[in-house]
Amino acid sequence: MPNKPKIVIIGGGSGLPVIIKPLVKKNVDLTAIVTVADDGGSSGLLRNYINIVPPGDIRNILVAMSHVDPAITKVMQYRFDAKDDFFAKHAVGNLIIAAMTEMHGNIFDAVQHLARFMNVQGRIYPVSNEPLVLHAEFENGDIIAGEAEITHAHKTINHVWVTGDEPGEEPKAAPEVVEAIMNADMIVYGPGSLFTSILPNVVVPEVNEALRHTKAQQVYISNIMTQKGETDAYTDAQHLLALNSHIGAPVVDYVVANNAVVPDDFVDFQKWDEISKQVKLDEAAVNVQGAKQIAGDFLQLRDAGAFHDGEKILKELLQILEWH
């Protein structure tokens, strides 16, 4: 491609940095769209104290896309010790983002200023300027509000949606988010928790409409492991079906899926207590949805867990761009 390809990555949590870190080293125009529905941990506490957009996912992306002295990113990621009373469990970066939000009046402008301070290569867009509440209806008919509560329920989810903080308040996407999606050459979903990191972005109405009308190639990076309750026994095709269903159309063109075997005795299921078992691949069911499965060894075993190898994923994404 003669110009920098415009790549938009959608998600949240700890999954996105895996592919962002290698991507920022390439000649691409990168935008990360990040969920603002987190209400657990330090993010949830700050959200409750001062009613700001939860900063945790944004902090992780800022660090992944920054080009600064590693000492600075180490400070951003530092969490106060549990014995530090009021500051216990808070990440320094979350407090900085909270302060910048008060200074600039909204999270979107705060992140743009902080991105300049941290020499971010690309753009980081919170999906909305206001904190959103994630809701889920489960297979048994129960409805729960709150990302942390949904995650800990460990129940099979039928579908999710978001609202503003106030009951009945319609969620609004930042205009820059919609513009980035419409102008993209490629949209990448994940890697990350399907129902609590990826879908909270795509169900925002303006985002949803943009994803159905953009001319970008759309790629879903399938999770390596299922999550308890959320995606138990899901194949890559079932992950894809949930994504397409929440968008309202079969928009995804490619599913990048790991087929390397995770050794039975490698994963520490106490340390990574949200995961269940390895995702199985179903190429025929992926094809039925109008997508092409790209299967390969994308596995990186580390920290007693199974993760995506960012460099290998990057190679596939750049190959897809070459095809179009």
TrEMBL record:
Tell me which domain of life the UniProt entry assigns to the organism this sequence originates from. Bacteria
Instruction: Tell me where in or outside the cell this protein is found.
Output: Cytoplasm
Where primarily located? Answer: cytoplasm
What keywords appear on the UniProt entry? Cytoplasm
The record's listing under InterPro entries reads: CofD, CofD-like_dom_sf, Gluconeogen_factor
SUPFAM superfamilies named among the record's database cross-references: CofD-like
Enumerate the NCBIfam families for this protein: CofD_related
Stated family = Belongs to the gluconeogenesis factor family.
Protein task: Required for morphogenesis under gluconeogenic growth conditions.
- Designated name of the protein: Putative gluconeogenesis factor
Tell me the organism's taxonomic lineage.
Bacteria, Bacillati, Bacillota, Bacilli, Lactobacillales
